[in-house]
Amino acid sequence: MIYLSQMLGNPVIDSEGERLGTVNDLGIATGEVFPRVTSLAFRDRGHEPLMISWGKYVGSYDENEIHLKVKAVDIRFSYLQPDEVLLSRDILNKQIVDTHGMRVVRVNDLKLSDTSSTQLRLLGAEVGVRGILRTLSPRLERMALRISRSMGKSIPERLIAWSYMDLVERDLSNVKLSVSHKTLDELHPADIADIIEQLDPRLRGQVFAQLDDEQRAGAIAELEGDDAAELVGNMSELDASRMLQEMDPDDAAELVGELDYERAEKLLKLMGVKEERAIRQLLGYPDDTAGRIMTQEVVQLPESATVEDAIAKMRSLDDDFETVRYLYVHDEDGKLSGAVALDQIIVSQPDVQLADIATTDLITAAPDEDQEDVANDISKYNLLAMPVVDENGKLLGMVTVDDALDVMEEEHEEDLQIAGGRNAGDPGEELPLRDLRWLLRRELWFFFWMVGVAILWVVLSTTRGGALAMLDATLMAAALPVALIVADDSIDYVTNFYLENDPEDDDSPSLFGFVLKGLGLGIVLSVLVLAIAAAVVRVISLGAPASELTRSTMAGFAAAAVSVLASFLFSAIYLHVIAKRDERGEETSGVVLACVAMVVALAVFVLVSTGANGLV
Predict the structure, then answer these.
(1) DSSP 3-state assignment of 167?
(2) What are the backbone angles phi and psi of residue 36, rounded to the nearest 5°?
(3) What percent of the chain has pLDDT over 70?
(4) Coil, strand or helix: which one is 50?
(5) 98 DSSP β-pair partners
(6) Contact in structure between 158 and 126 (CB atoms under 8 Å)
(7) I need a surface site. Which of 68, 148, 159, 336 has the fewest CB within 10 A?
(8) Got the DSSP string for 518-529?
């Protein structure tokens, strides 16, 4: 096996031993399962780019050089053919879609198979860390492998076969990538949405444009609001309007609600009258309510209708009609009176009236009811759909279980965001990057500690010598981790309180109670820090008079105690910030809050410790 990185830059030598130039790229014919290398691109000694046929002129090759089987004067140069791509220019360091793993990755190297002395084929793309190391230096890759083996670990290759690669950074619409290739437009809409979200923003529109209206409608319904609105914003008005018509009305209403008013109006006016009316009705309900996420595509029949009538009704529905889970029945006044599950229809005789088999004890929602409450009720009562009725009891639509799951997922993500987002991260993310993100988040206090030591040293250096200032700063900063870790924990205390208690619930603890409890915790922890510090200093000094060093240590612990108390006093402010931002529909990052809390703790610590040491 050989890699593209090992071929690039190698000398090209003719049959008489004359060096013609260096390898610049390799071209492949794309219409094969394992594409053959068909062209050799190199730069001559004057740095002019040239291309020749691989099969016609290459006699042998290895990791160090390429030998041609003809003299330089007998070479006839060629051009890249319509079904060919260049490996380095078109694929290396580019984003590709792995249609097998349903993810977007970056090509770090390309693996080639030398099936004969002259024939070379592309096996696939190396997307792991080994490709990066090899590109930097083969020696670096070998060194990393030796180190990992000595530790009982391995660094495996992460290879994606050509048959599972879809190129997105070049227009290859006229190129057949592979005879067994599964392209984007054959994937499930949810998988397409996941892939689009992973792409660089500049490439999303390019990939999205490859899909037809139905595929776009399915994929965009799975995207986050901002991403979906950005894609629609970059589409032509006619294409965007046509795509909205293919979407379910509730999904289309949610997307239109993310657009600016002027563009939304233009798109709605280009739609059919039926679709426009359905979307406008849903947009008339407030955000985050049952009315906004309900679908109006329901099957409703009078109580006198029979099972045979119900079956005939379902057979007449359009192919794109919302999946039927229940048939709803209404009385003579048009009020919802019951629901019949689909399985009940199947097992009943054709002449049975729906009123006789309908469930009348219904759980319903009002259109202005909070969507999270509706989702929780659907989960609580194990429903596939919940009817939404107006003040007169007439059926307006239904909230389906898939929409309820979306709501619960959104609420869960918001809770994670507020709580600090301490999940494993994006499953498609490289493991080393995921580990680094986790380390930075979990050990954030360590970096603030290092900053604190530096600040103390700078402050103390203004009045003391360099060595003595560094020693004092180190002793004082020994207590700083206590202040920083407690500051981080105070954010957990705040977010847990906010997530677990509903402000509108009478049984929830009051804000005053929260402040008193935080103040009590702060006092207890502060006293505990001072007591431990006094005991430690007493043991170290062994009864001797307090020295300058012990005074620095005590000043640090005293500052830590004050900082701990301040962290819990500020917790009421943090709680207020979270609540206000949540009311405005803005996300609050727990990581950002933790950083703010640590900055406050560090500032208090520096001021108190230097003041206690008689310097301010």
Answers:
(1) strand
(2) -80, 145
(3) 79
(4) strand
(5) 103, 165
(6) yes
(7) 148
(8) HHHHHHHHHHHH
Q: Are strands 326-330 and 299-302 parallel, antiparallel or unpaired?
A: parallel
Per-residue tokens: 100: 């097998």
Instruction: Indicate whether this model's pTM tops 0.70.
Output: no
d(CA 290, CA 365): 7
Look at residue 395 in the predicted model and tell me its pLDDT: 93
Residue among 355, 339, 341 nearest 306 (CA): 355
Strand partners, 53: 39
Residues 14 and 70: beta-carbon distance below 8 Å: yes
Across 468-505, b (16+ Cβ under 10 Å) vs e yields: ebbbbbebbbbbbebbbbbbbbbbebbbebbeeeeeee
Inform me whether the pLDDT recorded for 567 exceeds 70: yes
The answer, yes or no, to whether residue 27 has pLDDT greater than 60, is yes
C-alpha atoms less than 13 angstroms from C-alpha of 580 in its C-beta half-sphere:
6
Angstrom distance (rounded) from CA 539 to CA 553: 13
What stretches of 368-443 show up as alpha helix (H) in DSSP?
371-380, 401-419, 431-442
Tokens 């426009």 locate to 276
Q: pLDDT tens, 102-138?
A: 566 778 888 887 655 567 888 888 877 788 888 778 7
Q: Which pLDDT score is estimated for 176?
A: 35
pLDDT value at 430 more than 50: no
